[in-house]
From TrEMBL, chain A:
Protein name (database record): Formate dehydrogenase
Entry similarity comment: Belongs to the prokaryotic molybdopterin-containing oxidoreductase family.
Pfam family, one: Molybdop_Fe4S4
Cellular component aspect of the GO annotation: cell envelope
4Fe-4S Mo/W bis-MGD-type domain residues: 14-70
Gene Ontology MF terms in the entry: 4 iron, 4 sulfur cluster binding; metal ion binding; molybdopterin cofactor binding; oxidoreductase activity
Signal peptide: none
PROSITE patterns: 4FE4S_MOW_BIS_MGD
Keyword Metal-binding appears in the UniProt entry: yes
Biological source species: Aestuariivirga litoralis
Cofactor needs: [4Fe-4S] cluster
PANTHER family for the chain: DMSO REDUCTASE CHAIN A, TUNGSTEN-CONTAINING FORMYLMETHANOFURAN DEHYDROGENASE 2 SUBUNIT B
Highest taxon, organism lineage: Bacteria
UniProtKB/TrEMBL annotation, chain B:
Domain of life: Bacteria
A GO BP entry: anaerobic electron transport chain
InterPro entries referenced in this protein's UniProt entry, alphabetically: DmsC
Entry annotated with the keyword Cell cycle: no
Keywords: Membrane, Transmembrane, Transmembrane helix
Cellular-component GO terms for this entry: dimethyl sulfoxide reductase complex; plasma membrane
Transmembrane annotation, as ranges: 7-31, 37-63, 84-104, 110-134, 146-170, 176-195, 252-269
This protein's name: Dimethyl sulfoxide reductase anchor subunit
UniProtKB/TrEMBL annotation, chain C:
Protein name: Ferredoxin
InterPro entries: 4Fe4S_Fe-S-bd (IPR017896), 4Fe4S_Fe_S_CS (IPR017900), ET_IronSulfur_Cluster-Binding (IPR050954)
Domain (4Fe-4S ferredoxin-type): residue spans on this chain: 12-42, 74-105, 107-136
Keyword entries, A-Z: 4Fe-4S, Iron, Iron-sulfur, Metal-binding
């Protein structure tokens, strides 16, 4: 018998090029296989620090993204009414000429009348700098509706955060708490990590209303009620403090727990740290029984107690206040259990398991190191408990404080940057918070003048706010105003609403990149569409000009006046920079590039090069030489190599200096990109063993990080369990300080800017009737999709071409909803119709769906009758960007009061079987005249 | 299972053709040369025509009909291949038999041996068609001892009614043929009832838990299908006729067969009633064959949401 | 060659860990992209940008709800399903043309797209739904275990894995020789109680599934709680802080207002 000969060594490619994936925000290294110039296969780059050879469902479908029929192919100018989808193709010269004309006028008159917002932008280093050079404070990316609570809470607490700021020590951790949905960010690194935990038998606990994805493989699932995680974590802290199961040494040495706080109620210094005249905080030294500067090597600080300073002021240690708060019976498991939907015994058991793992299964690596006070440590001692949280915690109006509560738990267990705990990723740790302040105060925005600093930063006191004397916000989105003082990522979700309402002012040009703001990235889609097309009495649009850049015919494209078509991710240069959103590993810093692996056959240009071109045309200082010629004639790759943010520090840290031998700091190297390509399009520097942990207080590391420019000075990052900047806002709300909170904001500031983490119910739930809207509604992103991009992909949409509303069987039975019934979902703001699917693994008071699958008919190159638009739906229609009116008629944004994070997981709804069982989701929007179509 | 019309047409037409051919061989053995050249040629053309139409129709079901010849190669293991080989091989003695038996080329001595060879091959061909289905362990309703008998009896019953009908047209219509074909119709009905009884009684004792092996943990239900639109496996193997609808169709088959028997008996008085009987018998054959597919549940459906198979 | 070759010593196959699979679809799309340009190429899509988009996939990921004894709520188990490369595959023996065959050297079950007539009988014979008919090419397609990768001289040694295995971010998929009891995959199967799908069919699948492990939650873990000492938790904490963290407390407490940490009055 013979069997056919099979060619087991076919070469289905003639070339392999490395680059960086863009199918989500993970930024894994990929190898693109090409045959006759066409992409044939994409797999993970085994040498890449992020994914080490693996690839996800999205990444492997990149071919279909690249060859998508939804790709735009030429600059377009609107000719019909806005939103009608009538455009004419124009040449790039005309397009850039028009954009320059519009933008130059704004810059000459009032630069803040340009609102420049980018969405899933991976070049914020450039776009933010461009906005600064232009002179507008109205710049941000999408962090304000994504994850700013997570980022800000961490940065203000310990100079790091989850995801790209740090990760669990997958190699050593033995107990992992995963809060909320995590499938959509850091996807491959977390999946790889979970695989490692599974292989080692570490315990995974998922605290999540929904038991899918990562939660499905967790050893324990805690189906918590949305928005109550802070209570649950607080109860764990209560249990640990009650049993004295905390890492006292760690807390005493590396946090501000022993720092002395002035207790002087009603006065301007109440709640602030007692400081030396030089500004150093004080601790109470138990040897001398007197105050001493906090960082003096000789001090033996008291962790608890109340003392009287020599000047008579009464002080208390921060830890005393923390203990007083969390030992209160309010936080007892018995007290929080009902509200969280977590049994008392479970809370107690988890606390006991945490304590057992942290303190009885301690890890000690034989690696000597020296701390910030010069104390030598024989070993690196670790508490093998780690945690991760993202959107599920972040997208609630109490997310900032909840995230701080989680960090408090980690720190009390002594598990930040220790073996088995949470580990920073370079350039973190940074000072808590980082020292950059937002620019854009009154007087800082001037015609034809750059801003004196970046538009985004970290406010530490009311004086830093971007408000005028009356407290009026200076930014269009009201970030860094009394509405959202610590809005470190801006508030993109408010831009269109505020521009249309001219609150605080109207704008002339809205310039956006890669942000589907008329659809799945908008809260309140129907009104957003109305705002985009709203006209003034004279017939002109309220938002006069909209410039938009995207690679695909998204919903937003149709509402633009001028469309600048971008390339796909395989046709461009990019840098994944340590100055922007880093891809470092816990073991050391890393950055990477994208290189064009194929040439576009369409008349499209990479947005970043277009932006630099516009910068030159506008004569922006950083982009133009004195003779008016372009500073970066080679476009974005030229900028990547030659731009310097500080002497020797540029977008890429690797292969700098002559011959490319310098790392971190070095003169621009004209061969830098070639070095990157030769190295698989990435650079990674592995830290020596003694710098891999305790980096916030690791002398050697802090020195090294200063050289690399990650931190300004080699100073320790002391964890701010007590967050003094918040207290400064509270004082201003009491009428103290140089800048005093306006009357109408005082109560809100006073109650939410607690310097010690606490919990309050999410606003939407408090403002609507529990009876009328008894259920929570949240979304998750399917692991195989990333926003609207994924659901237009020919392969990925086969996996899910429409979504369902998932609900618990027991709740469905109560509501008389059968599997497959169409139901109405009603919020205080709107109503949708969707098809129900019943399941077990969901908190009974919660309904959920996959997000960003619903599409507007006629968009994304899909058939107008496709499932995405006929059966798919968005919860966005139900979410208001504004909270119901408060006393005085003012409507705050539906956001966290501290950071302005969009609170879209606070949504409350009621669900009922729909009278109309027709197999169509509601609302249905008019079909858009397609800009691109499949053949 | 998806009831593909090409396969239904193929199996019923070729079945009737082989049934008729086998019976003609019987006639040849018992009566020698055909009663007339026209009758002999007509009945042989009908038999071989039905077989040929059936075989051609079966190739419509193929993705590559031009490669159909390859199907003759694997007779060692595959019943489908054996069926193909037998079908092709049968043509040779069948054509010779037709030529000799009809009197086109008189050779009376050869009739018997050719009839025996042709008849046996015809029945073996039908049997191997049945075997294709009966050997599939994945489909409980087919992996059943009755399956082959259903194929054989329906082939012979429909063949017999065709023989009766053709004979009635040619005027020389022996009563024996009425009794003979009525008997075959009755046998087919009884066998079919036996088959239904058997598949209804067979326990559907495989569950989603067995298929996935997750039954070892507890009760298994479907959460999400791999893809939102149905795929080939779901369309081909997931076809299921509603129980109520199936019961109706079963009654239709029974009624058609009973009526066919009655009409055949009526042919004692009015010979042309045999034509109607034949039409009904063929109709019943097609409907029962459609049901044979539509009622058959494939074990793979357990992965796609079926609770038991 | 639909008659089966003598059993091979080498039995290449997959071991899929249902305790670790999160259902991310990486294996499914990686399989699709390799094989749409590999041995079975292409894997056609139908209505790719319209309603009910579908296509040929050689690996699909199901999701099941499993309700365990003593548990109130089901757990979701993600379940990737592809060809199991059975030792006695009926899909091969029923094939009338010999297009389906089991390789003598490693046991991989393949379809020769040059000789397949597209009769679909093999898909009827397979209990696992592993074979998909590509109507645009008129032939049957199935998992090849990436026969064009695992021996591919043009690939680096570390890449000579099935595309699904190489892609899997959680390492829930393992590839190896299940005919060798000492291989890593065989040992994994032995340790974790790897099982066959539908053994009653008698096809002896080579691929094995590792069952989800028992949960470690309220239903299975011992009830554990931290001690709750009598008296004021605050005072106790204070004493602990004093004793454990400031052992040299002989010093006078002249300026300390309140030993217990509370401000009096």
């Amino acid at each position: 018998m013979t069997q056919p000969a099979v060619n087991t060594s076919p070469k289905t490619w003639d070339e392999v090029k490395t680059t960086t994936c863009y199918m989500c925000a993970c930024r894994c290294g990929i190898r693109v296989h090409l045959k006759d110039g066409r992409v044939t296969y994409i797999d993970g780059n085994p040498d890449h620090p992020v994914n080490k050879g693996v690839i996800c469902g999205k990444g492997a479908a990149g071919i279909m993204q690249h060859y998508s029929p939804a790709r735009l192919s030429k600059p377009l100018l609107r000719v019909g009414e806005r939103g009608a989808g009538e455009f004419k193709e124009i040449e790039w010269d005309e397009a850039l000429g028009l954009a320059t004309e519009w933008l130059a006028k704004v810059r000459a008159e009032d630069p803040k009348k340009l609102a420049f917002f980018t969405g899933r932008d991976q070049s914020q280093g450039l776009t933010g700098w461009w906005a600064t050079q232009f002179g507008t404070p109205n710049y941000a990316a999408h962090g304000g509706f994504c994850s700013v609570n997570m980022a800000a809470a961490g940065l203000y607490t310990f100079g790091g955060a989850f995801w790209e700021f740090g990760e669990p020590d997958w190699k050593h951790t033995k107990y992992f708490l995963l809060f909320g949905v995590a499938e959509d960010h850091g996807s491959n690194p977390i999946k790889k990590g979970l695989g490692q935990l599974k292989a080692r038998g570490a315990k995974i606990v998922s605290i999540n209303p929904i038991r899918t994805g990562y939660s499905a493989i967790a050893d324990e699932w805690i189906g918590i009620r949305p928005g109550t995680d802070g209570l649950f974590v607080g109860a764990l802290i209560h249990e640990l403090l009650t049993a004295q199961k905390i890492d006292g040494d760690y807390v005493l040495r590396y946090t501000n727990s022993p720092w002395l706080i002035i207790e002087n109620p009603g006065h301007a210094d109440d709640g602030l740290f007692a400081r030396t005249p030089q500004g150093s905080a004080l601790v109470w030294d138990s040897h001398s029984n007197s105050p001493m500067p906090a960082l003096s090597p000789d001090a033996a600080p008291k962790l608890m107690g109340r003392f009287k300073l020599p000047d008579g002021r009464r002080v208390v240690t921060a830890f005393t206040l923390i203990a007083e708060r969390f030992l209160d019976a309010e936080w007892a498991p018995e007290k929080v259990s009902g509200r969280c939907g977590v049994p008392v015994e479970t809370i107690k058991r988890i606390a006991a398991e945490l304590a057992r793992t942290a303190f009885e299964e301690e890890i000690a690596l034989d690696v000597p190191w020296t701390d910030h006070l010069g104390r030598y440590h024989e070993k690196m001692v670790g508490r093998p408990v780690s945690m991760h949280a993202m959107r599920g915690i972040s997208a609630h109006a109490n997310g900032f404080q909840t995230c701080r509560t989680i960090h408090l738990l980690q720190i009390l267990l002594g598990t930040i940057d220790v073996p088995g705990g949470f580990r920073y990723k370079a350039p973190f740790p940074k000072p808590a918070p980082p020292g950059v302040k937002p620019a854009g105060k009154p007087g800082q925005v001037k015609p034809n003048t750059p801003l004196p600093g970046p538009p985004l930063g970290f406010v530490t006191a009311p004086e830093d706010l971007l408000v005028d004397g009356q407290g009026t916000p200076q930014r269009l989105d009201k970030a860094f105003s009394w509405d959202a003082p610590l809005a470190a990522h801006g508030m993109m979700h408010m831009v269109i609403t505020n521009a249309a309402k001219k609150d605080p002012y109207g704008i002339d040009v809205l310039f956006m990149y890669m942000a589907n703001m008329s659809w799945n990235s908008a809260m309140n889609v129907p009104d957003t569409i109305r705002y985009l097309t709203q006209k003034e009495p004279d017939g002109s649009y309220t938002i006069p000009k909209i410039i938009y850049s995207d690679a695909y015919a998204s919903e937003m494209v149709h509402y633009a006046d001028l469309i600048l078509p971008d390339t796909t991710y395989l046709e461009r240069w990019d840098c994944i920079s340590l100055l922007d959103r880093p891809i470092s590993e816990a073991d050391g810093p890393a950055d990477s590039i994208r290189q064009p692996v194929v040439e576009p056959e369409r008349d499209v240009r990479p947005f970043q090069t277009v932006l630099l071109d516009l910068g030159t045309r506008l004569g922006l200082p950083g982009m133009t030489r004195t003779d008016g010629s372009p500073r970066y004639p080679g476009g974005y790759p030229d900028y990547i190599v030659n731009h310097e943010r500080a002497p020797g520090i540029g977008p890429l840290a690797g292969f700098r200096g002559p011959n490319g031998r310098a790392q971190g700091r070095g003169t621009p190297n004209p061969e830098q990109l070639k070095h990157y390509i030769d190295n698989g399009c990435h650079w990674f520097y592995e830290l020596p063993e003694h710098m891999k942990y305790y980096r916030h207080v690791n002398w050697a590391y802090l020195d090294w990080a200063t050289f690399f420019g990650f931190i300004g000075k080699p100073e320790p990052v002391i964890h701010q369990l007590y967050c003094e900047p918040l207290q400064k806002f509270r004082l201003s709300a009491q009428g103290h300080g140089k800048v005093v909170a306006p009357e109408q904001h005082r109560q809100r500031i006073a109650s939410h800017f607690d310097p010690i983490p606490f919990w309050y119910p999410p606003f939407e739930g408090e403002m609507v009737s529990e009876e009328e809207f008894p259920m929570h509604a949240v979304t998750q992103r399917p692991m195989a999709m990333y926003h609207a991009w994924g659901s237009q992909n020919a392969w990925l949409r086969q996996i899910l071409s429409r979504n369902w509303l998932y609900m618990a069987r027991e709740m469905a039975a109560k509501l008389k909803v059968a599997d497959g019934d169409w139901v109405t979902v009603t919020s205080h703001h709107g109503e949708i119709k969707a098809q129900a699917k019943l399941m077990d693994g969901v908190n009974p008071e919660t309904v959920w769906t996959w997000n960003a699958i619903g599409k507007r008919s006629g968009t994304w190159g899909l058939d107008p009758g496709s499932d995405e638009s006929k059966k798919g739906f968005l919860l966005n229609h139900l979410i208001s960007e504004l909270l119901p009116e408060r006393e005085g008629g003012y409507r705050y944004s539906n956001s966290d009061p501290v950071t302005g994070q969009a609170a879209w997981y606070d949504l409350r709804v009621r669900v009922a079987r729909a009278a109309d069982q027709e197999q169509v989701s509601e609302p249905q929007f008019a079909t858009i005249n397609p800009l691109a179509r499949a053949e | 299972m998806h009831p593909a019309y090409s396969v239904i047409l193929f199996t019923t037409a070729s079945g009737a053709g082989y049934g008729l051919l086998a019976l003609l061989c019987l006639v040849g053995i018992s009566h020698g040369e055909a009663s007339s050249l026209v009758f002999g040629l007509t009945s042989m053309v009908i038999a071989l025509g039905l077989i040929t139409i059936g075989l051609l129709s079966s190739t419509f079901h193929l993705g590559h009909p031009e490669r159909a010849w390859r199907a003759l190669s694997q007779w060692r293991s595959s019943w489908l291949s054996r069926e193909g080989v037998l079908a092709v091989v049968t043509y040779v003695p069948a054509l010779l038999f037709g030529v000799v038996w009809s009197g086109l080329y008189p050779a009376p001595d050869l009739i018997k041996p050719l009839a025996v060879v042709t008849g046996v091959l015809a029945l073996l061909t039908v049997m191997s068609t049945g075997k294709i289905y009966a050997t599939l362990k994945t489909i409980r309703a087919w992996h059943n001892p009755w399956t082959i008998w259903v194929y054989l009896t329906f082939a012979l019953a429909t063949g017999a009614t065709i023989l009766a009908a053709v004979t009635s047209v040619f005027g020389n219509f022996p009563a024996f043929l009425v009794w003979f074909s009525s008997a075959w119709l009755l046998v087919a009905l009884i066998v079919k009832l036996g088959y239904w009884r058997s598949i209804d009684a067979a326990p559907r004792d495989l569950t989603m838990g067995d298929a996935t092996g997750l039954g070892r943990l507890g009760q298994v239900g479907q959460w999400e299908l791999p893809h939102s639109a149905p795929n080939y496996v779901q369309k081909e193997m997931g076809y299921a006729v509603a129980r109520k609808h199936a019961a109706k169709l079963r009654r239709l088959v029974i009624a058609a067969l009973v009526l066919a028997i009655l009409l055949m008996l009526a042919a004692l008085a009015v010979p042309h009633a045999a034509l109607l009987s034949m039409a009904l018998a063929l109709f019943a054959s097609v409907v029962q064959r459609w049901l044979f597919f539509a009622e058959a549940q494939h074990v793979v459906t357990l992965f796609y949401g079926a609770k038991a198979a | 060659m639909t008659s089966l070759p003598p059993p091979s010593a080498k039995k290449l196959g997959l071991v899929i860990d249902l305790d670790t699979c999160v259902g991310c679809q990486a294996c499914a799309t990686s399989c699709k992209e390799w094989n749409t340009q590999g041995y079975s190429a292409p894997l056609t899509d139908f209505n790719a940008y319209g309603s009910d988009p579908s296509g040929v996939w050689l690996n699909r990921v199901h999701g099941y709800e499993v309700k365990e004894q003593g548990q109130e709520q089901s757990r979701i188990v993600h379940f990737p399903r592809s060809c199991l490369h059975c030792e006695e595959p009926a899909c091969v023996t029923v094939c009338p043309t010999g297009a389906s065959y089991k390789r003598a050297e490693d046991g991989i079950v393949l379809v020769n797209p040059e000789t397949c007539i597209g009769c679909k009988l093999c898909s009827w014979a397979c209990p696992y739904g592993a074979r998909e008919y590509d109507q645009s090419h008129g032939v049957m397609k199935k998992c090849t275990l990436c026969v064009d990768r695992i021996y591919n001289d043009n690939l680096e040694e570390e890449d000579r894995l099935p595309a699904c295995v190489k892609a899997c971010p959680t390492s829930a998929r393992h590839f190896g020789d299940l005919g060798d009891p000492d291989s890593k995959v065989s040992q994994l199967v032995a340790e974790r109680g790897g099982y066959d799908l539908l053994p009653e069919m008698g096809y002896k699948p080579v691929n094995k599934y590792l069952p989800p492990r028992a949960r470690r939650d309220a239903t299975t873990s011992r009830a554990e709680a931290l001690p709750k000492p009598d008296g004021s938790a605050f005072d106790r904490l204070f004493q602990w802080a004093d004793k454990v963290l400031s052992p040299k407390k002989a010093v006078a407490r002249a300026n300390e207002i309140d030993h217990s940490g509370r401000l009096e009055g």
